[in-house]
């Protein structure tokens, strides 16, 4: 049996089982929501393994999932150190600083017509700047350690948070604001009790967008200067040495970290915005 036929057979079996789970009598079970994407991923990995082995693709070009898993298991200490440097030090700290700054400046913009008309157009321009142009400058300014990576992350997440928060703060009707004034509420009371709660879906939308941008920013910044640790540094050096399995192991770590980061923010959003129609089941 040819490699192509085996790959098609694996795909057909996975498609059939997934279709039965998703549309069959077990479709309403809670575990099916996890089983369907898991089975799809395993099907893709199985086809990947069969095609690479069957056609004799060099491991330098594309390693098999088994080879990547072996390298992952053998390099856990290195991967943890790289994860700590890139995600916990650079991406996470820059994410927190950038998101808090974005929300704070959005409140100032909402308070000032001058800032609303002057800063928002500039923010669109700044958000369009390419990271490959700004990252080397920030590395020169802040050094080769995690501080420069955090600075790149701040620059990347600040503007999405600013724009989403400004949009959220305006998502209240005139009648609601008039009602608060009727009760004698001050600007800050209206902000805390009406406008910020109404803006939470927008704020969390910005937070979720920023999770991806933070990881990308930290990784790319490490290509322009880093100590001898970090996921971006390891991907760059391992790729130059032809150790593609190590590159893929780092990619797996980045994918797991990004998915977990996004999932945590989503769980927090469900708890905070339980009242919003998007969270109702």
The percent range for strand residues is: under 5%
End-to-end distance, in Å?
48 Å
Radius of gyration, taken over Cα atoms and rounded to an integer in Å: 24 Å
Overall spatial form: flat
- CATH architectural name of the largest domain: Orthogonal Bundle
CATH topology description of the largest domain: MetI-like fold
- SSE string, helices as H and strands as E: HHHHHHHHHHH
How does this structure look, described?
This protein is mainly α and 281 residues long. The protein has two domains: 3-57; 72-279, MetI-like (MetI-like fold, Orthogonal Bundle), CATH 1.10.3720.10. It is 80% helix and 0% strand. The chain has eleven helices and no strands. α1 runs antiparallel to α2, α6 (131-142) packs across α7 (146-169) and α10 (231-240) packs antiparallel against α11 (244-272). The protein is flat, with a radius of gyration of 24 Å. The termini are far apart.
Offer a few descriptive terms:
single chain; 281 residues; mainly alpha; MetI-like fold
